[in-house]
Amino acid sequence: MRKxxxxxxxxxxxxxxxxxxxxxxxTEVAQDQDEAIVVKKIDDFSVTVETSRGQREFQFDKVFSAxxxxxxxxxxxxLIQSALxxxxxxxxxxxxxxxxxxxxxxxxxxxxxxxxxxRSFNAIFDFIQENSSKFDFKVSAYMLELYNDRLQDLFVxxxxxxxxxxxxxxxxxxxxxxxxxxxxxFAQGAETKEASSTQELYALFQQACANRHISATMNxxxxxxxxxxxxMVESRNLTNxxxxxxxxxxxxxxxxxxxxxxxxxxxxxxSLQEANSINKSLSALGDVISALSAELPHVPYRNSKLTQYxxxxxxITNNAQRxxxxxxxxxxxxxxxxLRSGQTVEEDDD
Amino acid sequence: MASVNxxxxxAICDKFTNAxxxxxxxxxxxxxxxxxxxxxxxxxxxxEIYCSLKSFEAGEGEEESGGESSERPVEDPPESGQGEDGxxxxxxxxxxxxxxxxxxxxxxxxxxxxxxxxxELPAGQEHLxxxxxxxxxxxxxxxxxxxxxxxxxxxxILWAGRxxxxxxxxxxxxxxxxxxxxxxxxxxxxxxxTEYFTTEEKLLTHQERTKRFELAYTHTKYYLAQVYKNLGxxxxxxTYCHSTLQRQLQLNQFSPMEWALNAATLSQYYIxxxxxxxxxxxxxxxxxxxxxxxxxxSEAAAEESETERDRxxxxxxxxxxxxxxxxxxxxxxxxxxxxxxxxxxxxxDTDRQExxxxxxxxxxxxxxxxxxxxxxxxxxxxxxxxxxxxxxxxSLFPLxxxxxRAVFLVGQNYVTQAKDYFLMDGYVTDHIEILQDHSSLxxxxxFFEEDLERRCKMHKRRVDMLEPICNELNAKYxxxxxxxxxxxxxxxxxxxxxxxxxxxxxxxxxxxxxxHTIKKFNHLCxxxxxxxxxxxxxxxxPEGKYPEHLEEEVLRPALVARFRVxxxxxxxxxxxxxxxxxxxxKSLENYKYVVQxxxxxxxxxxxxxxxxxxxxxxxxxxxxxxxxxxARMALNN
Lengths: 350, 637
Prior knowledge:
Chain B: Belongs to the KIF-binding protein family. Chain A is an alpha+beta fold.
């Protein structure tokens, strides 16, 4: 199901991928000054990365160096305008824990370097003010957390949720993703709150963040859950009465390093989802058996994913070479002994 | 449910049937852009059923507390409290309360699966957990045990999908122990979940109930196999895969070729671990069961129809694959035996041989039999055929030539079978791999052959098999394979050279060899050096330059090849001093390369420690020998 939508979006080519390089952290500099910087911006569209297998180059729609500011970043994402024009726009932040996703999307705790989310809020209301003579606007938002496949409404505090659950006995309000008649995807069961100013919207946002699951992984700001902020802007044209709704979705994804934890190798096409999941059907028993050992003498399957991607490194030398070697070596040792002792003797040996 | 209006009840049953139909049948026709349409409808029906049941319960509750209290079975106070799984609760005959709970549980179960199918996992989980809680209220009985197992299977899958393997393990292991306990203490064919909402006439036969129940448990075992694999407990996972296969045969729920391939793959796992008895059993079963798929259509039939052609292809190919698994069995058996029996220079150690033979005589047969009976595959019809196939080849390490030869012949037979399908023309890589295996079979057998002349002949067979191919193959496309072949050929020639020398030395009284022998010896020596050199040349760039830096996969082989070439050159026999000089120089050159490369690449030292050590010595000693030779040459002139 998910794959199908992924392919659809891919086909539409309306995805742009930006790359932002974060500055070296103090710990990294302390660890190894010279080797600290492994990612370099070559130009506005490419970066090079030092990997264990040498330098690799990657292409993006736009590259931001470590020197780029929050302002620069926001400026280049012209998406807010589209949302206000009635389109659905989505911004994802993807990367390992500690790579700076939250900083980019939210900003720092002290609110000195605002991220995309607060800047969007500002931009929205700035626009609204500018056009208040032509349009009537309504801004509402929902904020969700996705953790362990479960969507949590962040406008409900954990305590409040527990209370609600206890009351309705098993019919607790669940948030589910649905598609409405118009084909718009929405979160059913999530509370939407209206906001009439940047401050209000930001306050809602702060309330939501406070309700988030935070489990300490590598640094305090990160978490194992995804943060989803949806802002709907409904604009009614005062002249002809037409109404359009645009949506801005801002997503701060959980740290992607979990993929490394399962040990999935690059060439294995297992997504995080599938790594440890169980295959329901007995017809996959063959795959399960083949995977019991990486070095089966023979795998009697054709076109199996495992045989395609398994690195069956076939040694060039025979297994028995060791024995031949030992014989050769023993012989040569004898020769050497003879040569040494035979230095004074005229005759050739061997 | 005496108090329930029978027409109301029938309505519920109909709804249920509808819901099942929507879920299993209709849903396949749902359009791409609305793939869960039928399932959403089914969900509504299930919800309605749930509500109806709840309202009955409310009604019944009043009645029961009124007049039917005497009918309630005596309840033992729960001993260890309401544990998660109700394991400690005594089994009892079906009580009305229990049945009601089971029915509600069943609806929750189906709702749970429904939500999971529509990718709403949290909702699915909730319903499944509700089902579990409802079942806790009643004891595990023939009314509820099937549902008990099913719901835990589902929860196992769900949690595994979230990467919470231990959670999954918990649910599945509970299901497993409940099944085992139920079968031990009760064993009656339990109610299947679909029967909760059927009318009397449509109830299942005992046979059918058992079949479905057992299938659920087979799945439990299968899921546990995956869980153990994910936890890294491969040994256990293999055991559970084995059980799954066993059960499939016993319950007659398998497709022959698929089962056969799976068993053959499992055999490879066992072989890897040196467990030849289990490996042999898997392979024998694989062969027998693959036979159940029937004859492959003839060539004529294949010409006429495409389906027949495909079927012929598939059957023949899969059977050939099984043959290849057998080859690996024989191969590994021979080589593991060799590892046990060889001394430090790779020859058969007769003392060890004696020792092992003595040990074998004293081995406990009973223990073997017991271990074996636990793993048996098969059903009434197939036990015999499988056993008779097993008798054709030993699962014990061969300890002398006769035993080794028996294993060799079985392997060779399978080589012929496999080659019959994997023709060179069409399956180059597979064909060559089979040939390499055949060559290895010979190598394994040669170890046991005491007669050196015969041993030499076996090596000659290997050369005849591999040499033409090595020279025919396209150098660019088959680089890896050619390298393997070159290295193997070099070693075979080396081996043959040594054998000839030993033979000659045994015959002659004096140290000197006759011309014929010298010629033969030199030929073999040069051939060996040639192939090592070919291997080294294959590492060069298109312009013919040796790589500055050797890649990891070729590092050791390349250095060893140099070392061996050096040694071979120094062994060439010639009466011509100038030729001797040339050979010694070439020898020195190659020893020097080893030393110099390791100096320039310290990381390489560890891979060729001994060779490096000896090369250094030779680099020191050979120049002296060369100088002496030069001096003699000068004198003679």
